[in-house]
Amino acid sequence: MVEEGRGPRDLLPLTPAVLHILLALADEERHGYGIMREVEERTGGETRLGPGTLYGSIKRMLADGLIEESDERPDPAMDDQRRRYYRITDFGRRVAGAEAERLQSLVSAARAKKISFGVRPLPGGS
Amino acid sequence: MSGARGEDGSISERVYRLLMRAYPKEFREMYGRQMEQAFLDLCREETRRGGVGLARFWVRVGLDLASSAIVERRCAEAKEIAVKDYKMAYRSAVRVALATAFILLLPLLAMQITDEVVWDLADFAFAGALLFGIGLTYELVARKGSNIAYRSAVGVALAAAFILVWLVLAVGVIGRTGDLADLMYIGVLAVGIIGAIIARFQPHGMARALFATALAQALVAVIALIAGKHQSPISSVFELLGLDGFFVALFLGSAWLFRYSAREQPPAGARPEG
């Protein structure tokens, strides 16, 4: 399913759900619920992935080679056997990096156009 | 209270399992159990929090389920169509290959009974490739139209292209065999092919593409006459005008059939059958 010779930029832009899942898996392997919790905590409850969105995204990310299923179980004694763990691939890491870069350049463009960022004033701005 | 919560969890689980039928079967088989597990974890957490959290949670889950089920259904449908198209294309290729083999049997048999037909391996390979290519193109393009006029138009255009290529390579149309002026007919076919691609095989656009092809064909005759090719004993004015006129008529006929087809169906109607 994974196409050969594809670069990280070929998959951009990512959907918010896919980027959140990649970020959740960037530091450790997690199961579905673990990903949901990490995203919710990291965004202060602003983003909450539902099971449908999560597993729909996981299906496509597996097909694109962004993540893979892990055979290892970080704590088998504490864990339900039904849970499956996922980890980010090298390609997934590069895609996440490319997306972050894309978003950063977008933010720079917004700053250059003096777009105000929410309620917080820009550092050194009026 | 904790018992009620446990019961709620159980009812919620059953309701969620029921709602999961909105997803395609394949998706449910792959991720159904994991989704249920994630749902139960979330449900337990919300039940622990208490208050209106559970109601809010159900609204969120319901919206997530509805939106993602639509996405997954669309994906499943697209996959199904792709598989169906692949199977149809495969069957078409087999059918055309068999028809090509049958047609090639005719010269092969003729060679056994007469010395008038002399084909070598290259002739068979070329004729086979040409017949297979034209046949497969007909199968794939004609499927895009839902009426007889469209299919006839495709058939006439491809037949004209086939005869033109055959004539040019076998005996030549302009001057002696191998006259470079015959290369102009590549341009004629290119006009038709590029026009068809631009028109995306829609009947309105195809009519224009075939009209342009007819025009290009007529232009070749005019250029040949201006260049004095009719002075060659091999291709007289009559032959040049007659042959090119024959192809112009075929291409115009095809264009007219496409136009007729467009009148019979709206432009969006040019979709695969079945």
Structure description:
The complex is a heterodimer of chains A (126) and B (274). Chain A has one domain: Winged helix-like DNA-binding domain superfamily/Winged helix DNA-binding domain (Arc Repressor Mutant, subunit A, Orthogonal Bundle). Helices cover 47% and strands 8% of the residues of chain A. Chain A contains four helices and three strands. In chain A, helix 1 (16-26) packs across helix 2 (32-42). In chain A, 29% of the residues are buried. Chain B starts with a helix and ends in a 10-residue tail after the last helix. Chain B has two domains: 2-72, no CATH class; 148-274, no CATH class. Chain B is 79% helix and 0% strand. With 274 residues, chain B is an all-alpha fold. Chain B contains eight helices and no strands. At the A-B interface, helix 2 and helix 3 of A face helix 2 and helix 3 of B.
Arithmetic mean of pLDDT of chain A? 86
Major sheet description of chain B: none
Cα Rg of chain B: 31 Å
Number of strands of chain A: 3
**CATH topology descriptor of chain A:** Arc Repressor Mutant, subunit A
CATH architecture of chain A: Orthogonal Bundle
Structural class by secondary-structure content of chain A: mainly alpha
Shape of chain B: elongated
Q: Kindly give the count of domains of chain B.
A: 2
Derived from helix and strand composition plus strand pairing, the structural class of chain B reads mainly alpha
Task: Summarize the topology.
The complex is a heterodimer of chains A (126) and B (274).
Chain A: H1 16-26, E1 30-31, H2 32-42, H3 51-64, E2 67-70, E3 85-88, H4 90-112
Antiparallel strand pairs in A: 1-3, 2-3
Helix pairs in contact in A: 1-2, 1-4
Chain B: H1 2-19, H2 25-49, H3 53-113, H4 121-142, H5 148-170, H6 184-199, H7 203-226, H8 237-264
Helix pairs in contact in B: 1-2, 2-3, 3-4, 4-5, 5-8, 6-7, 7-8
